[in-house]
Write a structure and sequence with these properties.
Elements (H helix, E strand, L loop, with lengths): L12 H13 L6 H8 L2 H11 L3 H24 L2 H4 L6 H13 L1 H12 L5 H9 L5 H5 L10 H15 L6 H9 L5 H4 L10 H15 L8 H14 L8 H23 L5 H18 L3 H10 L9 H15 L1 H7 L5 H9 L8
Helix pairs in contact: 1-7, 2-4, 3-4, 6-7, 10-11, 10-15, 10-20, 11-14, 11-15, 13-14, 15-16, 15-17, 17-18, 18-19
């Protein structure tokens, strides 16, 4: 359990979107009177009647004609195949692929149904909001209680801080940070697939790219948030070029943040569950240590995984990891000498909204 008792995932993205889809499907109730009241509430009918020098009954009659024409169209729109609603964004082959994904994964169908119903200009902001409701599935799989599983938003914010700590001397630091910032934004729509899910790596990348296309459809019109999200995702996945070494550092941060979360989970595990949780986390740790490319990331990771601090408080583990990184890179240590890292550590652990650090 978290030390401060605070929940980390605020709501559930899939449940939220499903509820919104159902509400939209029911937007036009049965019965002409109810439809008229929805289209033109009585107060508005009275005001229009006064402005137009006519009677409320005449206004209601016109509203009724409108309701009879629009209700079937809107009802059909809300209940249609979710891919039909956004078909203009995709080729025939992409539409077939997405329909197959919707059949295989209800979470994907819910996501496309929801994002297809909201204005294109609002989609990027809604995607960012939903990232705080989208749990990281891998932690769920090993038994972390649902309310305390790290969200994708937590992962993004914690990783950005890691970027500044590991690569504070890199001239491309802002690019590293911005590339990491929203690289998982597509998961707000499709959910977080892990290697254990019944979907191939190529299918996952393609699905996420098509989801991001829907979320950022307004980027061609100059929508700033849509452009930011697309740039982050496309740069991370290699769809657009980056300066040499930047993508490798971004991917190291992605992996290393997972090890940091692993250390947090260990520190919170109750005594009677530690052995089981340690076994579950061993898979994550082994995967990360075998993938890290940059020497600072490897040194930091070794400190996080030091068996002597396996169940210590995260602040202590973090400090130990930083000491190991500086010991392995004296030039970077000299560059950072005298810098107060307390705020960075506070921010990184606070990014999880999990610890109160005084």
């Amino acid at each position: 359990m978290p030390r401060d008792g605070a929940y980390r995932v605020h709501g559930n993205a899939e449940a939220y979107m499903a509820a919104q889809v159902e509400a939209m499907r029911d937007v036009f109730p049965d019965g002409e009177d109810a439809q008229i009241d929805l289209l033109l509430p009585p107060q508005l009918r009275a005001r229009l009647a006064r402005m137009g020098g006519t009677t409320e009954g005449e206004v209601a009659e016109r509203a009724g004609m409108f309701a009879r024409q629009m209700a079937p169209l809107l009802r059909a729109y809300y209940q249609a195949d979710p891919i039909d609603r956004v078909a203009g964004l995709y080729t025939d082959d992409e539409q077939a692929f997405l329909r197959n994904m919707c059949v295989r994964f209800s979470r994907v169908k819910t996501g496309f149904a929801y994002f297809g119903m909201i204005r294109s200009a609002a989609r990027p902001f809604k995607a960012v909001e939903l990232l705080s409701m989208q749990p990281r599935t891998g932690w769920q799989r090993i038994g972390v209680p649902e309310g305390f599983v790290q969200s994708v938003d937590d992962h993004h914010r914690s990783g950005e801080i890691l970027a500044h700590i590991l690569f504070g001397d890199d001239p491309e630091l802002e690019l590293i940070s911005s590339t990491f910032r929203y690289h998982d934004a597509g998961e707000s729509l499709i959910g977080d697939f892990t290697p254990h899910c019944p979907i191939s790596k190529d299918e996952k990348i393609r699905l996420e790219a098509l989801a991001v296309r829907l979320i950022t459809a307004d980027r061609s019109r100059g929508h700033p948030m849509a452009q930011t999200i697309y740039q982050s995702f496309a740069a991370y996945e290699g769809f657009i070029p980056l300066p040499e070494g930047v993508r490798e550092k971004v991917r190291d941060i992605d992996l290393l943040e997972m090890t940091l979360e692993s250390a947090m989970i260990r520190s919170e595990a109750p005594m009677d569950a530690r052995a089981a949780i340690d076994r579950g986390l061993a898979e994550f740790d082994a995967y990360v240590t075998g993938q890290l490319k940059h020497s600072r990331a490897r040194s930091f990771c070794a400190g996080l995984l030091d068996p002597a601090l396996r169940h210590a408080h995260p602040v202590k583990v973090w400090g130990h990891a930083m000491q190991g990184m500086f010991a392995a890179d004296p030039d970077y240590a000299a560059l950072c000498a005298g810098k107060d890292w307390s705020e960075s550590v506070r921010a990184a652990l606070g990014a999880a909204r999990r610890f109160r650090i005084s």
